[in-house]
Amino acid sequence: xxxxxxxxxxxxxxxxxxxxxxxxxxxxxxxxxxxxxxxxxxxxxxxxxxxxxxxxxxxxxxxxxxxxxxxxxxxxxxxxxxxxxxxxxxxxxxxxxxxxxxxxxxxxxxxxxxxxxxxxxxxxxxxxxxxxxxxxxxxxxxxxxxxxxxxxxxxxxxxxxxxxxxxxxxxxxxxxxxxxxxxxxxxxxxxxxxxxxxxx
Length: 200
Ligand code: GRF
Prior knowledge:
Distance between the termini: 16 Å
Oligomer: single chain
CATH class: Alpha Beta
Bound molecules: 5-O-phosphono-beta-D-ribofuranosylamine
CATH superfamily: Formyl transferase, N-terminal domain
Order of helices and strands: EHEHEHEHEHEEH
Number of helices: 6
């Protein structure tokens, strides 16, 4: 039997990917459980959702710490205290330092709304539309010190339709994100996907 992995999820806002992961964790036999949700934004809507689901939550506002190192140390302590096996960034809007990503190497993943390596960073939907791209999508990747640059774990593509605007395209991609992220977590938890030279 596969051991159940303990997930810490980091959010900054809406938290719809977090919700998709929480839903997946309710499925019988899903090999992970959410033990902690952290946010850098105490007003994040996703925190209310996590609270309502009975998940432990904690907020770490960047402004409450002297520097990024102290901020990240506080988050790392909470993650370690919760005995998290895997950290899932889900709309977490802080760029993490090389020290932090190295500390959790192979145990920290992110979902990004583009077919990486295309459109790293922000405003991915607008950029894909401006380029006249025919396809777009989302990626789950291991997080390293480079922005949206770590090894890709899984991707899902969607068509860009002639009438699409940013909103319609974002919605089509988001639907796929909600399928892709729980599936990628499942594959990591079962050991089907491993970080290069590392095991969970
Ligand atoms: C998603 O599009 C995700 O790919 C990106 O930030 C957005 C977060 O949305 N990293 P939500 O908070 O999960 O609803």
